[in-house]
Design brief:
single chain; Aspartate Aminotransferase, domain 2; 2 domains; five-stranded mixed sheet; three-stranded antiparallel sheet; 16 helices; 14 strands
Length: 462
């Protein structure tokens, strides 16, 4: 029998960026100055930055070489056509509208398709996606499978669409009031959980019967393809690139933040298969982003993203990328720390309710946990709970999601396993001190997407 061998990342370090840890006193001062919101910390105050994987990846030498080939023509940049060809080859869509990042694509899609009174079902909300749908007059409806709301459930595809719930919505409001089904792969707010290929095929069949479009949030669709390869019968011998292409084939278009899977620091796109919708979107992009051949990006950024797409679908890259996330997740499980299971593709999610059962949700336990983690070690994470969920537009009351999480998001090709060890030790220390933790109260609340800029102060009890 062949002995199991260790594996290593499929790259070597060429450039380093120094980091340093502030003293405990300095971290506490920084926390107070930022209103206990990790988004408001300065980057130089952070030791290991797990706030997000959006735009924080390390680019390859091939991508940096492409940056020097940027064609900065205002119209018709050659780099746009390189990007268009890469998207058409690996994602399979016909028409491409570049945008400055993912939310630019969400804005265009919502303006093109969503009308007041519409309902947009999806496999759990995402913050900016839902806001753009609501600003266009739509109402988001969660149709994710129920087990997605259980952090302890070990199902392999907790991001699946609940087809029965979708059928019930169609029967209740009518297919004509549903402009599209919004499918995220993987599902960020559920802990990075994937969607199966079987579920996508069945969703396509259902929506085709009712004449409803399917639009993919393709931000981490490559990671979703990797999970299909690893977890779904019949796909283990197929490449990530092949699986991605089939997965996208069951949809009518996608929004994309290239700052995740595509390994760049800025950029995104809206992809469509319908020529009429493309015509409208390519006209609107001139109003909100830039000309339809640059969409808010420099030519060099489009070139880097085109090359990042090619690198992103390589199997050895995905094995290392998801492998590092799983390394941290299983290390925390071994330490007895409550996390969302199974481990997702881009982040490990701490279960703040299990950390702090003595806190009510309106004491913002996930926000407090992120603050305690930073105070302990300088590790920056982010809240994904009641603060991120926002308020009900009609009642003004907090949305209270079943999941109250802290996301430890791993940038691609940035940190070593030693960094993951430090993170795990800090999380374990904070978990060990959980009994003495107290919650927060919100002292400043922005109108939109409050989790980015809200401020808090400690809520001391007893």
């Amino acid at each position: 029998m062949e002995r199991h061998r260790s594996w290593a990342e499929p790259w070597k370090v060429k450039v380093v960026e120094p980091i340093r840890m502030l003293t405990s006193e300095q971290r506490q001062e920084a926390l107070e100055a930022s209103g206990y919101n990790t988004f408001l910390l300065r980057s130089e105050e952070v030791y290991i930055d797990l706030l997000t994987d959006s735009g924080t990846s390390a680019m390859s030498d091939w991508q940096w070489a492409g940056m020097m080939l940027g064609d900065e023509a205002y119209a018709g940049s050659r780099n746009f056509y390189h990007l268009e060809e890469a998207i058409q080859q690996y994602y399979g869509y016909h028409y491409i509208v570049p945008t400055h990042q993912g939310r630019g694509a969400e804005n265009l899609l919502s303006k093109v398709l969503v009308r007041p009174g519409d309902y947009v079902p999806g496999n759990m909300y995402f913050t900016t996606t839902r806001l753009h749908q609501e600003l266009a007059g739509g109402t988001f409806v969660d149709v994710i499978v129920p087990e997605a709301h259980d952090p302890t459930y070990e199902g392999p595809f907790k991001g699946n669409v609940d087809l029965c719930a979708l059928e019930e919505l169609i029967a209740r409001v009518g297919a004509e009031r549903i402009p599209y089904v919004c499918v995220a792969g993987t599902v960020n707010m559920a802990g990075g959980q994937p969607v199966s290929m079987t579920n996508m095929r069945e969703l396509r069949e259902l929506t085709a019967r009712h004449g409803i479009r399917v639009m993919l949030d393709a931000t981490r669709a490559v990671e979703n393809a990797y999970f299909i390869q690893q977890r779904e019968p019949g796909f283990h011998e197929r490449s990530v690139a092949e699986i991605l292409r089939e997965f996208c084939s069951y949809t009518d278009g996608c929004t994309m933040s290239g700052k995740k899977d595509a390994l760049v620091n800025i950029g995104g796109w809206l992809a469509l298969n319908d020529a009429v919708l493309y015509e409208e979107a390519s006209n609107l992009v001139v109003v909100y982003e830039g000309l339809h051949t640059y969409g808010g990006m420099a030519g060099r950024d489009m070139e880097a993203m085109a090359r990042g797409i090619v690198e992103s679908v390589q199997d050895d890259h995905m094995h290392a990328r998801v492998g590092q996330v799983e390394y941290l997740g299983h290390k925390l499980i071994d330490l007895g720390v409550p996390i969302v299971r199974p481990v997702g593709g881009h982040a490990v999610y701490l279960d703040a309710k299990a950390f702090y059962p003595h806190m009510t949700q309106d004491q913002f336990p996930a926000q407090a946990l992120a603050a305690y983690l930073y105070a302990d070690s300088g590790v920056r994470a982010m809240e994904r709970g009641v603060v991120s969920a926002g308020r009900d537009a009609t009642t003004g009351k907090h949305h209270y999601p079943k999941l109250e999480l802290v996301r430890l998001t791993i940038p691609r090709r940035v940190y070593t396993q030693a960094h993951m060890d430090i993170v795990a030790e800090s999380v374990a220390a904070v978990y060990g001190a959980r009994a003495g933790a107290s919650g927060l109260t919100m002292i400043h609340e922005p109108r939109y997407l409050r989790f980015f800029q809200a401020r808090f102060k400690p809520l001391h009890t007893g």
